Amino acid sequence: MTRDEFILHLRESSLIALKFAEHFVKDKLTTDFKYNVILNASNDDLNFNQFDFYQEDNGIIKLNLIDIEVIDLLYRKNKVPVWININVLKSSRKSTTFNLLCAGRFTDNKEEFYYNNKIGSTPFGIKSPELPIDYSQGKKFSL
């Protein structure tokens, strides 16, 4: 995946995740996006030599990034995490913030991605906002 493709996938996935979240939340979600990135969220077997691993990323969380900062962080040696879960976390009058929960395995092989699809979100998996404990299906909630 090229850097430009990765940027397009991040932006497209963000829009899809925003539209999906609108089914759940009362909040007005804007298209000025911020991102919180949680690195190495997978429990990886380091013996898989088809992947790159970055053990120094363990426990690292980067907050309030813009899209280009996300790309700078996650696009490494022409490789990206094999999966990145994206969901709306919060909103303000000025921006919508997403969580990006990232695998610790990096690849340039599209066959290794968990979320191989044709809607433009690979390697991103679109997830719902975190549902409240008392969530009732069909009832919208505030973030």
UniProtKB/TrEMBL annotation:
Domain of life of the native organism: Bacteria
Record protein name field: Uncharacterized protein
Organism: Flavobacterium bernardetii
Taxonomic lineage from the root: Bacteria, Pseudomonadati, Bacteroidota, Flavobacteriia, Flavobacteriales
